[in-house]
Amino acid sequence: MLVTGPIGAGKSTVARALGAELARLGIDNAVVDLDDIVFMQSTPAANPEEIWRRGRSVHAALVARWFQEGVHVVVAHGPFVGPDEESPLLVASPAARVRRLLLWVSYETAAERVQRDSSRGLSADPDFLRQTHQRFREMAAAIPTPEWEIDTEVTSPGVIAELIACSIAHRK
Known about the structure:
Structural class: alpha/beta
Strand order of the largest sheet: 2-3-1-4-5
Helix content: 40-55%
Radius of gyration: 16 Å
Distance between the termini: 13 Å
CATH architecture: 3-Layer(aba) Sandwich
Number of domains: 1
Shape: globular
Strand content: 5-15%
């Protein structure tokens, strides 16, 4: 399960809720956040592209390892925009069936959400947030067609998690 969307769309919240709902339905799963993996690095000399490339590589290896350990569903979430950014996952887990969830949110709502979250660093900067939202919208055409595309301003994380978990459970 690949969850993507712009900053503040609720990727982490939905992914955690989905993991909990899958577990409630008796489906073992792991939730793996690309951002967490990327920000584990302490590499002040590296450029941002290299930091993200390495993070994606490690994230993909971790997702693959969960499958090797017998986990049935891995909820991988992060800012995956286009085939180049998700290709490490596909290469690392070639047998996995990828199901995609694309979350949307307006810049204004995202700005409100990130301002309420004290753990936000750069993503709370209004100019950075606006730039990343604009980039995400511009690159959205490169995202492989998602199975679900949901606006998190009108649908709660719990409802999204229930919808997707039920779909996964019925197709198992």
